[in-house]
Amino acid sequence: MSSGKALHGSLYLQTSPEAYTLEAAATASSNPGARGELSREQIRFDRRTGGVSLESAKVSASPTGILIYGILGVVSLATVDLLILITSRSTPKTLFDQDIYLATNFLLLPLPTSVKDASSLADPRDRHLLKLVKTGLAACEGRLWFSYERDLTNSMDRAYKKRESTESLWEKAEDRFFWNRHMQSKLIDETRTGRSDLSAFILPVIFGSVVVQQAVINKKQFTFCLTSRRSRHRAGTRYFTRGVDAKGHTANSNETEQIVVVKGGADGAEQVFSYVQTRGSVPVFWTQINNLRYQPDLQVMDRPETADALKAHIDDQIKLYGDVYLVNLVNQKGYELPVKKAFEHAMQRLDEPHAHYTYFDFHAECKGMKFDKVSKLVNSLKEALDHQGFFQHSTGSDASEPVKLQKSVVRTNCMDSLDRTNVVQSALAKHVLNEQLLIAGVLNPGETIESHPDFMFLFRNIWADHADTISIPYSGTGALKTDFTRTGVRTKQGALQDGVNSVMRYVKNNFFDGARQDAFDLLTGAWNAHGLTEKSALDKMPYILFFSAMMLLASLVLPRQSHAPLVLFILPWLFAFVVSFAFIWGNGILYVSWPKLNPPSEILEYEGAGFKSLARGRGLDLPMLKGRAKRIVKKAVKFEQ
User: Fold this and answer.
1) Contacts of residue 225, Cβ cutoff 8 Å, sequence gap at least 6
2) Is residue 192 included in any domain, yes or no?
């Protein structure tokens, strides 16, 4: 095990035919006097064997080479590994005098191999997986945050409980939010075996957002911070990761922490407040199966392991946060109703006094764009929120223990856990913030933050940006309903923008998300089957559709060179267009961009108890479904080890 080493803030990459060597330029530490000290450590990645080791640098040598700001980790491809280094970072945000950075560019180096760079890989399987790594890094753009001093994976509450620990930063990190945990496995394994202590090079990175803003109310300045952390478990895209897995991990699982720091106490103390909420997919086995329809087929799977999976999820929430209040915003009519019923049925069978279920019919209550009616939900939870409390601590004084601890958490979900969820979470955050600023003396008795339009503008826009940060990697677009979050009013312009985003989601979810899902699986270590799905011979149909459409258009706009009736030219191409369109529409499931590394065979072939909407787009007759599903998921090119 490690010895609690401080992380190296800057590294210099030196490349030779034998190895990639990263020499530490300085030791990043909370002790200002430690900054600028030259480290004697080097980490060496052998280009012949792929091994990693710790070495000592020459004391008199000045660091040379390419400046590197951290090691994101190592990803295994088909025949080689890929070392990923952070080559650029943003201007730091500062919280509690600790710098926080956004990773903005990366360098990819193959191991073990003698090729010059990753673009020179010979094996086509490696080249395909390299594209997925780049796709994954692009999907993470603007969302990978790190600090050499501050543990970004833990909330204020969890970090406080670990304050006396002498462990290194990666050992104290919360596993769910240590986004590059799998990529750091090589370094972690080397450290845990005792061969080399590489702790000073193991950099925990979170996937999410960090916003730190200075704000003023009543001429009193304070720091407002909003942080989101996406779980690395069951990560992925909207329609390919839904519900829960057998271990209790839910799709689109995020922790959001709102932090307020108020200075100016008589003894120079800071008052620190923190409030944590969570979101995640409905924790039962369910999915939506793409079929080129705007509304995919809904499938709820009543599996024997549902009770255990739900219990594992709730137990994890209780362990981390105390009591959990599960707020369900799924519609109680129409398409979404089976998901609501399945959730409530599972909760009825769960014997857990620390789990509290609350239903709020968001669309019915807020009908007519009246999203301010969410206040009904906040009021109904007032007693629970009063008991829940929040983290409060005073620094710089004799106080050694927090004044308050948050005793529970509100876990909110809708179908996507994006749009409705964010409206509710921002309303709960505003409710708690009013109480915190009143205690801190920023607000006067009887005042609320709604009385201060400048701060409300800041608050609303930070929460709207937060919604987009969570939505884009999962759905492909920014969140819906953010006009209300930004302005407090639902507008026609906002509704129009939501329509545009909905169309973009349709296109990306049907035709592009397969590769993005593969990329997330590769980066987080969820890929557990070495296979790539072959293209179906039916891929010719879209070309026929496109070509016939072009010929029909040409017949209408180009000058004619023949005296033959135009209808004789149009009819064959119209026939080809109609037949190809009907075939694609009737077999839409075959033309969706499905994941190839972990194809969803278990879902597509499920025939057990539960609920299935009409199987549209799966072929002209249902008996063919199983064969069509197999065509998608069974034809694979196996990777040779």
Assistant:
1) 95, 210, 211, 212, 213, 257, 258, 259, 260, 261
2) yes
Residue ending a domain, among 204, 233, 262, is 233
397-442 pLDDT tens trace: 555 788 899 999 999 999 999 999 999 999 999 999 999 999 999 9
Residue 566 lies inside a defined structural domain of this protein: yes
Q: What is the pLDDT of residues 337-367, one digit of tens each?
A: 999 999 999 999 999 999 999 999 999 999 8
Answer yes or no: is pLDDT of 26 > 60: no
**Lateral strand order in the sheet of 41-46:** 52-56, 41-46, 19-27, 8-15, 66-68
DSSP code per residue over 203-268: --EEEEEEEEEEEEETTEEEEEEEEEEE-STT---TTTS-SB-TTS-BTT-EEEEEEEEE---TTS
Count of structural domains within the chain: 2
Q: Which residue range forms the structural domain that includes residue 609?
A: 528-638
Q: How many CA atoms lie within 13 A of 96 on its CB side?
A: 19
32: helix, strand or coil: helix
CA nearest to 390, candidates 372, 407, 367: 407
Structural domain contains residue 340: no
How much is the pTM? 0.88
pLDDT tens digit sequence for 492-541: 788 888 888 898 998 889 888 999 999 999 999 998 534 444 444 445 66
